[in-house]
Automatic annotation (TrEMBL), chain A:
This is Aldehyde oxidoreductase iron-sulfur-binding subunit PaoA. GO terms for molecular function: 2 iron, 2 sulfur cluster binding; metal ion binding; oxidoreductase activity, acting on the aldehyde or oxo group of donors. Keywords: 2Fe-2S, Iron, Iron-sulfur, Metal-binding, Oxidoreductase. PROSITE patterns: 2FE2S_FER_1 (PS00197), 2FE2S_FER_2 (PS51085). The keyword Oxidoreductase applies. SUPFAM superfamilies: 2Fe-2S ferredoxin-like (SSF54292), CO dehydrogenase ISP C-domain like (SSF47741). The gene is yagT_1. Residues 15-91 form the 2Fe-2S ferredoxin-type domain. It comes from Methylobacterium dankookense. The keyword Metal-binding applies. It holds the Pfam family Fer2. Gene3D superfamilies: 3.10.20.30, [2Fe-2S]-binding domain (1.10.150.120).
TrEMBL record, chain B:
InterPro entries: CO_DH_flav_C, CO_DH_flav_C_dom_sf, Diverse_Substr_Oxidored, FAD-bd_PCMH, FAD-bd_PCMH-like_sf, FAD-bd_PCMH_sub1, FAD-bd_PCMH_sub2, Mopterin_DH_FAD-bd. One of its GO terms (molecular function) is FAD binding. PROSITE patterns: FAD_PCMH. SMART domains: CO_deh_flav_C. It comes from Methylobacterium dankookense. This is Aldehyde oxidoreductase FAD-binding subunit PaoB. Keywords: FAD, Flavoprotein, Oxidoreductase. Its EC number is 1.17.1.4. Residues 1-221 form the FAD-binding PCMH-type domain.
Amino acid sequence: MLIESGSPVAADTRIGISLTINGHRRDLQVAPWTTLLDLLREHLDLTGTKKGCDHGQCGACTVLVNGTRVNSCLTLAVMKDGAEITTVEGLAGLAGTGSNSLHPIQEAFIEHDAFQCGYCTPGQLCSSVGLINEGHARSRDEIREAMSGNICRCGAYTNIVDAIEDVMSQGGGR
Amino acid sequence: MNRFEYVRAGTVAEAVQAFAGAEGSRFIAGGTNLIDLMKYDVERPGRLVDITRLPLDRIEERDGGLRLGALATNAAVAYDARVQSRYPLLANAILAGASAQLRNAASTGGNLLQRTRCYYFYDTATPCNKREPGSGCSAIGGIARIHAIFGTSAHCIATHPSDMCVALAALEAVVQVSGPKGERSIPIADFHRLPGNTPEQDTNLKPGEIVVAVDLPARDFGSHYTYLKLRDRLSYAFALVSVAAGLELDGDQVKTARLALGGVAHKPWRNRKAEALLQGKPANRESFQAAADLIVAEAKTQGGPQGNAFKVELARRAIVRGLEQAAAGTPQSISDKRIQ
Ligand SMILES: Cc1cc2nc3c(=O)[nH]c(=O)nc-3n(C[C@H](O)[C@H](O)[C@H](O)COP(=O)(O)OP(=O)(O)OC[C@H]3O[C@@H](n4cnc5c(N)ncnc54)[C@H](O)[C@@H]3O)c2cc1C
Ligand code: SF4
Ligand code: FES
Ligand code: FES
């Protein structure tokens, strides 16, 4: 059913929402308790976005909502009705260079060897794009601080900061 | 997560009404605390009232100060040009908390109402008076490293985890709320409460009341301030002890001192006697040590190797260092973690 402002939706109801995910509009029916992360992974097969902790403590689930990085594990899909979501699968599309080429930050991660196992990488990539969009971090220390919401068990931090600095010095690369 | 009803509110009145319409209602804003607690079954709301579409996200000039809408995100407030230039104490406190992603989602109202990070509160297998009134407090005699040293009771020794609220306490912000019985203003000092016999109540907000805004008074302590946060790792961790300090100086004499501590009590901790003691004194280490000694004299610690006795000396030194940073006009950097 569709949502009407002020009217309660019963607990067992599927709610009709529409999201633009990686540039494609999707009309979806979701239970109120479905997180954005579970919607992406379990319902839409967009398994690039990872579930690390499910509690906001690791950043593996980072996606862009209307261009802003957030933890998709701590947001409900119904609350994002109408939003534009970009996941790691959509970063190449953001760059606007066709789906076969990578986003500059993805190129830079490869170039700088900014991952080992890769589990944290989709979150690191989306977070990096968010950081560059925000435009607050300039120095290396500031980049490190602004990326502290993404934990990497392999400890690829130094190279991740290198990759971000590289893209920033090329003028952003959205 | 339990099953719950969902209401999307379009106006404050609609939100207040929807809240009253069911048992166990909760407002939801950023969701970064509530959804976390729902996943642990600590919160089991009967109804979620989604307030994210209310027009409460503005930051506006008001009476020489600023009014922060309850839905202004932590990031929006911290990076607002007016907040950065006039209330850098608040900006720095917010930026010392959580992560960039969390601050992008977290709201001003939700930050005020975030719940304690006491491990036992989160663990439904253990007794906790805050989660289940009357069941006991597992932290007393348990692992109490992160717990309070001021204002505790025999029923709860939890701390309020917010960084933002510590700065708001030093700035003497005023919380604007709306509820079934109309609107009222609550000074920040009276917003959070001590646990006493009813640790299940974190604040003096009445059931069904919604925070609509936070007002920052004109006095901004924008020249002599610091937010010094000490924690187990240098970022993305809650405070063990934090200090929000704001000074007004007359030459090298203290005209006014504001000092609030985080990580040490059930609410941002202020000690008016210590602030009064500083008034008219030279802004030097000796005065600051006297104020710090006065404050920590009231500390009551939890024993054992997993206790929190270390926080007394940590707080004492942090107060002195924080006041020195404020007096010198060299606030703690958010990104360069060295403490000068
Ligand atoms: C891993 C992690 C690390 C963190 N680290 C820090 C840290 O270092 N420092 C720090 O300060 N914080 C930290 N936080 C906490 C974070 O700041 C809070 O989760 C956030 O501020 C809550 O805001 P929200 O809008 O997401 O609240 P929600 O989760 O939406 O709501 C929280 C509570 O407030 C109530 N509520 C929300 N808005 C209103 C309103 N307008 N009126 C009445 N009630 C309302 C809700 O009903 C709920 O009970 C951390 C969180 C996580 C997950
Ligand atoms: S300190 Fe408070 S929150 Fe923690 S276990 Fe005791 S009663 Fe519960
Ligand atoms: S899965 Fe969301 S932060 Fe870890
Ligand atoms: S690359 Fe393995 S966790 Fe980061």
